[in-house]
Amino acid sequence: MEIRCVAIDDEPLALELMKEYVSKFPVLKLIQTFDDAISGVEFLRNAVIDLLFLDINMPDITGIDLVRSLEKKPIIIFTTAHKKFAMDGFDLDALDYLLKPIPFERFARTVNKAVEYFHYKRTALEDTQRSLFVRSEYRLVKIDLSTIEYIESLEDYIKIHLAHGKFVLTLMTLKAILEKLPSEKFKRIHRSYIVPVARVSSVLNRKVQLNGSMELPISDSYADFVENWMKQ
User: Fold this and answer.
1) What domain count does the chain have?
2) pLDDT, tens digit, 9 for 90 and up, residues 196-227
3) Are residues 46 and 69 both part of a single domain?
4) Full domain range(s) for residue 98
5) Among 94, 95, 10, 92, residue whose Cα is nearest residue 57
6) Same domain, 216 and 196
7) Three-state DSSP class for 125?
8) Quick one: three-class SS letters along 44-107?
C-alpha cells in the first residue's frame, strides 16, 4: 500500500534532496512538491494526503501556522535548519523533525517510523469499523458489529440485541451510539430502534423484517430509510 506524501520547502535544493530521498522508498508516493507555503496549503485543503514533509521556517507562512490551519492533518514530519523550532513541532503532534542538512540515515529512520505509524492508524481504523466499545455494569465491553441484531432504546439506557439471544445494556442514547457506528452499515428507523442494514430482509407496511423474523416499526421521521434501503 502506498503512502501519499507532499513536501513543502521554500529552498529548491532542499526539495530536490527530498525528492531524491523519497524515491528510494517504494512505499512512498510523492504526489506534489511546493516551494511556497500558500500554494501548498491550498493543495492540502483539497487533497487526501497521508504524510507531509514540511519546512518550519518559511517567509509567507510558517510550517507551524500551516499545520494549525489544516482541518484534517496528515502525519507531519517537520524539516528545519533551526533546532529551536523543534519543540513547536512536537506541540502539534508532529511525528518527528529533521534537522538540516538531513543525513539519509536519519531520514530513513524517520520514514520507517512513519510507515509503522501509518499502518498502526489503518489497523486502528479498521478495528473501529469492526467493533464497538461500550460500558456495561462497570466494565468496558467490546462488541463485534457483525453480532448486532438491532439496538433498542429503553429510556436512559439502550439494549444492544446480539446473536443467540444475548444482549448488552449500556447507559447511552441512540443518538450517541449511532455516532459511534459506521453510518453506511447502521440506520435509525424509529426513535426507539437502530438496525444493521445487512440484516434487513424485507420492508412492508412501515415495518422492517430482520433476518430471524423479528419485525420493527419505521416511524414517519425515518421513512426515507425505505427508499435508501432499496438502493443498497
Assistant:
1) 2
2) 999 999 988 888 999 867 899 999 888 888 77
3) yes
4) 3-129
5) 10
6) yes
7) helix
8) HCCCCCCEEEEECCCCCCCHHHHHHHCCCCCEEEEEECCHHHHHHHHHCCCCEEEECCCCHHHH
